[in-house]
Amino acid sequence: MLPAIANIVLSATGAHAIDNSTVIQSLWSGYGQIVRLELSGGAYRSVILKHIKLPDVTTHPRGWNTGLSHQRKIRSYQVEAHWYQRYAAHCANDCVVPICLAVKAHQNETFLVLTDLDDAGYDVRKDKADTDDIYACLDWLASFHATFLNSKTDGLWECGTYWHLDTRPDELAALDDVTLRNAAPLIDQKLRQCRYQTLVHGDAKLANFCFRPDSSTLDSPLSPPSVAAVDFQYIGHGCGMKDVAYFLGSCLNEDQCEAMESQLLDYYFSIFLDRVAHKKANINAAELENEWRELYPVAWADFHRFIKGWSPGHWKINSYSEKITTSVINNLQP
Asked: Could you state, in order of their start, the residue ranges of all structural domains in the chain?
């Protein structure tokens, strides 16, 4: 490790030395890497270094290698750094996130030094989720949305999520479904005009949740929360249903989505409204719930519009999504 990078980590943590480093993953399209650093001395046994280095030549696994894509990624890393510096500390124990120990930027490189969720007990990653896992993640989302309900978005995305229409004109132009392409601005408008806005995570897929090995939603209230979340590059203003629809689509097949929709939305709102009652005063809970429930299918159709233009053969394009989207389009008012 270069001495300048090591000095950033040691200064941020108070450690005496970096004993070992392990690359966890490369960042999307070759924009750097995430590394776990094992430390001696200081308060932390290990930390996570997110090293963003803008490449001279960019690549994209699905061929979307454009100037707009590059600028979106640059902005996303700026947003994430700002989120950790200015907003993350507002997350209480019911929506755990890493603690930011340092942010350093120099020329085309940025370094984020974060606490290691593995060391905090959230060391399980899942590629399949059972019902308790889904409940745990919905609990996190509900708490997060309640925490930032009606919050400002200074320095974050004005419109959260990585697929929102303003940043995806290329994918919209590639969309073969003419009816959906024509309806896309109205779908986007309905979500943007939502009265009750919060901060949305913006990429709340199953892979971005870290689980405790010994916990469930049935734990004692004194137990640590079941999950924590990472990756805040696309956090910004939005209706919480954008996160919920995207999350459920990341871990359920089309039959499960249809069969479990009411059950899972009921669970989310039971947690969300309880958190709102404790965190926010003078909120009309019934009005809030009614608005967001009506926007759940709209949020689903919004992501469906993106995925259908971005990757027409993607597994998430299914009969459930088509049915929801057709219903949303039929009910749109120009």
From this structure: 1-120, 124-334
